[in-house]
Specification:
elongated; mainly alpha; 0% strand
Length: 97
């Protein structure tokens, strides 16, 4: 599903670029891009890369946190079961009657 959405997005972007080229809207954009200094592109690429890395790292951190919480929950449940068993075994058997 993810690949299908990505493919649809690429097709839509190419179609928009085609329409812009047909209506003569590409030339002013190209002229504007040619007038910008080369280092500006590096700065923009760095900002985009930094955002991408921040997003990926936050997603990985969230997954690690969820695994840790689940592990600690399992430890807690084992302790609760052990405590129930200990209390059950400690009860007076005559009190059951």
């Amino acid at each position: 599903m993810k690949q299908a959405k990505r493919s649809l997005f690429i097709v839509a972007a190419l179609f928009i670029l085609f329409l812009m080229q047909q209506f003569g809207m590409i030339d002013p954009v190209i002229n504007m891009l040619e007038s910008v200094a080369w280092w500006v592109y590096l700065v923009v690429a760095g900002i985009i890369f930094s955002g991408y890395q921040a997003f990926n790292l936050s997603k990985q951190d969230k997954e690690v946190d969820e695994e840790w919480v689940e592990e600690q929950g399992n430890v807690y449940m084992k302790r609760m079961d052990a405590e129930k068993e200990r209390r059950r075994n400690r009860k007076d058997p005559r009190a059951m009657s």
